Amino acid sequence: MSTIRADNFSDRVGTKTVPASAVTEGTAKAWGTFNAVTPAILSSYNVASLTDNGTGFFTPNWTNGFTSITAYGGPVSTSGLTSAGFGGFTGNNRATGSLRISLRSGANAASDNNQNDFSVFGELA
Amino acid sequence: MNYNEYRLWERELIFKQLNKDLPEPKYAIVWEDPSEPDEPLRITVPSPTWLAMALHGDILPPVEVYWELKKDEAKPDFKYHTKGYLLHDTPPIPAMTEEQAMEYLIQKDIPPHVWYGYNGNRKIIKIVPRNLIPTNREFRNAWRIKQDVEDDNGTVIN
Hints:
Largest sheet of chain A: 5 strands, antiparallel
Number of strands of chain B: 3
Distance between the termini of chain A: 20 Å
Largest interface: A-B, 35 and 44 residues
Oligomer: heterodimer
Low-confidence stretches of chain B: none
Radius of gyration of chain B: 18 Å
Number of strands of chain A: 11
Mean pLDDT of chain B: 91
Structural class of chain B: alpha+beta
Number of helices of chain B: 6
Shape of chain A: elongated
Largest sheet of chain B: 3 strands, antiparallel
Shape of chain B: globular
């Protein structure tokens, strides 16, 4: 396997540049989409399993964990069949090998929604 | 393909490119946490990609690697992992059956006090076919593992 080592990446004409660290830091290191009703992981990367902890609380467990408990996180989106709710990674139950997701309905009740998506950024161990 | 040459997270990227149609897992793990007796039953399901890699073999590290990392993380002065290389450099384990993969997952992703050293008189962990898990989520937070009553031969009598 080959590796490209560079300080920056640029477009063809060199007018727009990003540092290589922005690419490595800004790339999702884990992501998943799951159905909280069944429950089932529909598609994922770097997710070994998903634990259903009860209504509206799920824990994805990583295949390759992260370096630090605090230095990683990302967005969560959730929706039922006809309307969206909101979700996020909780502040407690954080570990380098897993994070807990809270899913809520639009009315702010714990909810098992059909379509849930997350992505995680940070440094892999 | 010699996955051993690559880091663990790279192996999955390569595996996903080479294997598009992955079967659905047949089993799930249902478990109760004895340290949180009022909490509902948990259900742990594997990801299809992870399970396919476990069945393929020569990709995943031994489960002891995850234990070692968790031991470090449990230390009061833990800031960040310095033994991440164990995930990538430890020789991967050979192909598993789906049952073996579920047992591996128990030891990897479920707290040890659930599956090791529990001395209570309840069954608190089971590997079950996924089609036995209710999809009607009513009363989800009240779910518990049914406690079978068995005779001396292990036959369920209730």
